[in-house]
Amino acid sequence: MVPTEHELHGFFRSYSRKLAEDYAATRPRVLEDPGTAGDQGEESWASLLRDWLPEGYSVVTKGRILGASGDASPQVDVIVLKPNYPKFLKGHKYYFLEGVAAAFECKLTLKPGHLEKVMKNAKLIAGLQPKPSGSPQKEIMAPLVYGVLAHSYSWSADKDSVVTRITEKIHELGQQAIEPRELPELVCIADLAGWRLAHCSIARYTVGDWVEPDPSIRDAAIELIKKEYAGFPQKNHRTSSYVQLLIEKPHSEYTTQYYPEHINSNTPTESWERFTPIGAFIAALYDKLAYRDPGLLNISEYFKAVHVPASSGGVNQAKGKLQWPRSVISDATWATSWDKGPEWQEVFF
User: d(Cα 312, Cα 329) in Å, to the nearest integer?
Assistant: First the structure.
């Protein structure tokens, strides 16, 4: 059994304090010299990533991502290069898309307009790569992990209200995307919360006797769901104790990595008292990188085993899922078996 307090929790608290100290030292300089202050904020996050990512992953600042077509992204603050990135090319500020593992915008103080820019840039980065085919993972997921990292935030309200407002803003902007691969995957505000994107290749509805013991009512509930999604191919699975409906209906969802009670806790004995947005972010980043680099799966699973709070999910606060047409996954891919392998998972966290 994992002890309540693990060394990882203490490490993440230490890094959280370091970012808070950097923010307190840098913020007074913003009006005097916003460029240098911003550079210092970027370096804080770059240093965190250098310390926490495996040997071989390089972290650079201020560069553009270059697609095979020659088109380039806007300038990105922090870029994580894959271990196989050519050493000679690391000194150039145009980084090849296929060699980039992750990229992040960095803000000292996150504002609503920053989220809008991040959503636009996520679409531009996805557009640098022709959409691949062959599996839901390839067709749904973005070519690299992209998001925004901030020391703090500009919203003036109590923390619970701010988290709700940011969640709603992210969901609202996400609805403007045409495909799931156009969305940013991670948002982290070091002194507040995090947000992570998950994709579902199918929709699964289960009505069991533990919810409704009457079989006829269970069947009626499934029939209502069938009618709601009449335009999507469906599969039924029935047992004596439950009815399950699987629908070829892709959707995505942002979950909030947040424990309202975690602020100013000095006695880390409960799950929420061990939570830090930094810890949740690093664990989520490993999750997402592991889809592209299976060699990271063991560390990703270790974070879950020691229970880094909110590492494997979060609280769903968004009003509804981001729904996609069935066509975001190709007909050829839909024709393959749903249990073909890891690239045909139901959920990609």
Answer: 25
